[in-house]
Every structure is written in structure tokens, then in C-alpha cells.
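User: Can you predict the 3D structure for this chain?
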Amino acid sequence: MNKFFTTVSNIWKIEDLRVRITNTLLFLLIYRIGSYVVLPGVDGAVINAQHNAKDGLLGLLNMFAGGSFSRASIFALGVMPYISASIVVQLLGIAVPYFTKMQKEGESGRNKINQWTRYLTILITGLQAIGYVRSQVPQEAISPAIAGFWFNLITIFVLTSGTLFVMWLGEKITDKGIGNGISLIIMVGIIAQLPGAIGSEFHDRVIAGIGGPIVFIVEIVALLAVVMFTILIVQGTRKVAVQYAKRIVGNKQYGGVRQYIPLKVTAAGVMPIIFAQALMFIPATVQSFFPKIATNGVLIALSNYTSWEHNLVFGILIILFTYFYTAITVNPAQMSEDMKKNGGFIPGIKPGKATTDFIDGVISKITLPGSIFLAIVAVIPAFASMLHVNGVFARFFGGTSLIILVGVVLDTLQQIESHLLMRHYDGLMKTGRVNGRTGIPTAAGTTPPVI
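Assistant: Here is the predicted structure, written as C-alpha cells:
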């Protein structure tokens, strides 16, 4: 315990780190305050009374938006349009030569890609704002003074501006704060739902007497076990030994040491779950647009996230997308080329194509257990719901939210560790560093994002 307080004291002694943490907290506070500001002309009491967006896709979006979605807040759409735009631009970088060329242009190319991402974010936000106004804002909650065309126009403008402002906050947190700003905003939104979810579950189990306090304690222990298991797998790496040749420059010797390339078991992160979820929402969308086939048994089964058909297809899609996303984010040929340029080689493996094939084989082998893990984590909330766990609380047992929480927290700890160790202070852990959070070199020489 003394070591913990000493570490906190060391953090506060470092001016740059202290300023960054303070800036991060202030920006996040602005975001949380804005999430409670209701859209102009909307009666917040009516919105809260209806308890919208608690299940399915809307419940997931509401969790990522920190509850703003169900409150009809000016930040109702959160950063999800920006995430969607980033995914689209990233895929365009693989399929469209123009975007591929920009990715290789260094800083100027990244600036162009960011600009394209912002433009696409505005377009996606505008489209989603139209759908939000029509489906999530009931007529009885709208003030008669501005109801109609002008209300729709103003609301779409405010929602789009709100998303752009949240995106700006994320960029400021990245520049002047600590860690990935967009990821931190999503994480704070998810954590904001946790106290209410635990309170609701406590009320159902203990106060209402549905199951009793023993069941509630078992659920909390199970949640902690799932979180620990997730941390273990997310930090899991396969270390590939690399030997660097000795070089004598003047009176000094360089190289001649053995280092390791840490290949992550879950290199794709949370992206396969996001892609798979997007596809699994198609049956429900088809049912809403074509009421005549809404009674189709297959569509009903695939739309029910507690059915075995839904979870089986969901798990298979996650495994397939894990291999796909790992293949486009981790480039063994580039890693082999960089290793060769720096005079490094894998013991027992010839440089060049043999090294590329070896790294590719290792990645293929560790991707299988990683993809199975992601599939298991993704379907745990469904099993929790089938065991009569509160729907909101069940989402914390796995899925996208849990992996985002674990990944962002570990990355933030790594940022703090780097500042401490840079100034010769002890890190947050006894070993002096957060293990398993080293990024994997990719084709562009960058580290895959958390989300």
C-alpha cells in the first residue's frame, strides 16, 4: 500500500504528466456534463419516462454513448459515427490505391486521411441524426412551438455538431492529455453505466428478493473472473527471438544482443466483434423494413441474441473476421524486411522469404485461440441474460464493452508507466512495467488501434 501512495506521489511530481492527467480529466468532465444536456425543444422528463434504447443494438449504442442516446442528449450519437468513418477509411486503404498511397506518405498522408475521415464522419452523422430524430424522439416530448420541419433541421444540426465536438475533445485528449482520446471517451461512457447496472442488479436480487444476496455475490465474483481472464488473454503475446549481428564502430560495439518481437494473441483487438455485430443486426433491420416476412423463423432466431442460432453464427463470423483483420493489420513481409535492414535474424531461420513464412505461420497459429477467445467473450452476455441477469449488467460480462474497457485501461497504464520510467521512477507494477502492451509493427509501421 505504501508503494501505491509513493507511486501516486511520483506521478504528481512530474509536471508534464500532472498537466496531462488534469487536462484529460477536465475534457472528460466536459463530455460527461454535455451528455446530460437535452436537445433543444425536447422534454427530458418524457424521454426518461419512456426508458428508450435499453436492448439490442440501441442498448449497445446507448452504452457506448454513456447513456446520452437514451436521454436525447446533444451528444446522443457519441463518437460512433467517427469510429464507423475510421473503419471505412481503413478498409479503403486496402482496396483503393489512392488511399493506399496516402497511407505511405508519412505525416502529410496521415493528415489527408484524417481530413477524409472527418468529412465522412459529417456525412454518417447526418444520416444517423435523421434516423435518430424519426425513431428515438417521440412527438409528445417535442415542444409544439418548434415541432415539424424546423425542429428536425435544428436537431440534425445539433446532433452533428455534438458528434464533431466530441471528436474534437478526443483529439485534444490525445494531444494534450494521456492516451487515445476517442478510446478514453468510449471507456468513460461504458464505465458510467456500471454503477447503475450494479445497483439495478442489487435491487433485483437483494431488495426485491429475486435470487437473494448469495446469487448477487456469485455474479460479482463471476464478473471479476471474466475480467481477469480477459486481461490475461489481451496481454498474451508470443515472443519471437531475434538476434542482431555485432557491429564495431570505432571503439564501441553495437548489436550482438537477442531481442524479441511480441506477437499478440488478439492482434485484431475488438474490431472482429464490431464487424460481426454489424452483420448480425441485418436480420432485425430486414424485419423492420419488410413487415410481411417478420414472422420468418430464421430471421426471428437470428434476431434473438439469446438463441443458439444467433450465437453460433455470431461466433463463426468473429473467428473469420479475426483472421481477416489480423491479415490486413499485421504484415509479416514488412516485419521481415525491417528486421533484415537492421541486421537482425531469427535463429535457425534464413532471412527473406523463410523469415516471412515463419512469422506468418506463428501468427496463423496464435490467431486461432485468439479468435476463439473473442467469440467466447462475445457470447458470454447472452448466456448471462439467459441466467436472468439484468440486461444492462449482463453486457459487462463480455462483448465489445469489456474488451474496450480492458484494452483502454491497460494502454492508459502503459502511458503513465512510460512517463514514470522515463524519469527514473518506479512504475505502477512491481516489475516496473505493464506487461504485454507492446504494439505489433504493421505494414505502415504503426500500432493497431485499441478499437
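The chain has two domains: 12-178, 210-451. The radius of gyration is 24 Å.
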